[in-house]
Amino acid sequence: MSGFGAFIIAALILAVLWVFLSVKSVPQGMQYTVERFGKYTRTLTPGLSFITPVIERVGREMIMMEQVMDVPSQEVITKDNAMVTVDGVVFYQVMDAPKAAYEVNQLDLAILNLVMTNIRTVMGSMDLDELLSRRDDINARLLMVVDDATTPWGIKVTRIEIKDIAPPKDLVEAMGRQMKAERLKRASILEAEGLRQSEILRAEGAQQAAILEAEGRKQASYRDADARERLAEAEAKATTLVSEAISKGDIQAVNYFVAQKYIESLKSIAESGNSKLIFMPLEASSVIGALGGIAELAKDIKHKTPGS
User: Fold this and answer.
1) What does DSSP assign to residue 273?
2) What is the mean pLDDT of residues 201-229?
3) Is the pLDDT of residue 41 over 70?
4) DSSP assignment, residue 51?
5) Whole-number pLDDT of residue 232
6) Terminal C-alpha separation, the chain
7) Phi–psi pair at 285, nearest 5 degrees
8) Other residues' Cβ atoms within 10 Å of the Cβ of residue 295
9) 150 or 269, which is more confident?
10) If you average pLDDT over residues 208-216, what whole number do you get?
11) Position 231 confidence tier, pLDDT thresholds 50, 70, 90
12) Which among 57, 67, 62, 45 has a CA at the least distance from the CA of 101?
């Protein structure tokens, strides 16, 4: 009985060990490959799974979540022979566990070397100015090339980002001087453009003022001419009325006409700029007497006129 009992105990131990070795729990975000006598047979997905102990074993434990890999700094010679230091980061995800496990050895190292090589290739075909201003284009070109190369490995490269592009110190200083000179040039151009606009506005203002002044003189000339025309019409009308009154024998009209012309003559003499000494009767009685003499002369002329 002691031998039979030992056998039972040994059988129970083997059964427990068999169950322990056959049950596999795969966590979320992982997949296990199963090998039978060293050959891949199937893939275990997240959850509880079973394998045949001794005959089968778990080959590779693959992470199916998106992973991040830093790309170390490396020196790259650009198309215009500038030496720059570049680093980056790669985001990738295993899409096919068997391919990622068996199509390439040391998957992480293979992806890293592929990315670093293509960084030198892509950035080496560009000028320094393009490297500094077209980083998105560089990322897109790297992603396309590396993703195509890793597709047979069951890998999907989702993003490649260039983190830093560091030119040499002397080149950075030269770029700083160039940038300063460019800013000074733009400032000079803007200042000259401002002066030009100011001169143009000043000239336009002077032109507008001259036009307005000429327009004013034109309007004033029109008004002066209209006033002279009206004055001439009034004088002509007054002369006609005086002539009609004289022809009718109105002596008062003659007195008015002669007195008006006499006063206008005195005004013209007084306003003259020449130095003159004129003796003439300015007393009121003398003026009236002169007017009376002229009036008597007009009467005599009227009486001597035939048919009067």
Assistant:
1) S
2) 81
3) yes
4) -
5) 74
6) 194
7) -70, -35
8) 14
9) 150
10) 83
11) confident
12) 62
Question: What are the backbone dihedrals phi and psi of residue 281, each rounded to the nearest 5 degrees, phi first?
Answer: -70, 110
Q: What proportions of the chain, in percent to the nearest 5, are helix, strand and coil?
A: 60, 20, 15
**Residue 303 confidence class, pLDDT cut points 50, 70, 90:** low
Cα–Cα distances (Å) from 258 to 205, 264, 269, in that order, read 54, 10, 17
Residue 26: burial class (beta carbons within 10 Å; 0-12, 13-18, 19+): middle
Question: What's this model's pTM, rounded to 2 decimal places?
Answer: 0.55
Going from the C-alpha of 204 to that of each of 52, 187, 191, 198, 216, the distances in angstroms are 99, 25, 20, 10, 18
User: Tell me, what amino acid is at 94?
Assistant: V
Full DSSP string of 61-125: EEE-S-EEEEEEEEEEE-TTS-EEEEEEEEEEEES-HHHHHHSSSSHHHHHHHHHHHHHHHHHHT
Which residues are within 8 A (CB) of 91 and not within 5 positions of it... i.e. 6 or more apart? 66, 67, 68, 69, 157, 158, 159, 160, 161
CA distance 68 to 294: 129
Neighbours of 227 (CB within 10 A): 10
Strands (E), 120-210: 155-166
Contact 60, 43 (CB under 8 A): no
Is the CB of residue 87 less than 8 Å from the CB of residue 119?
A: no
pLDDT at residue 285 above 60? Answer: no
- Which residues touch 175 (CB under 8 Å, ≥6 apart)? 167
Q: Mean pLDDT, the chain, as a whole number?
A: 80
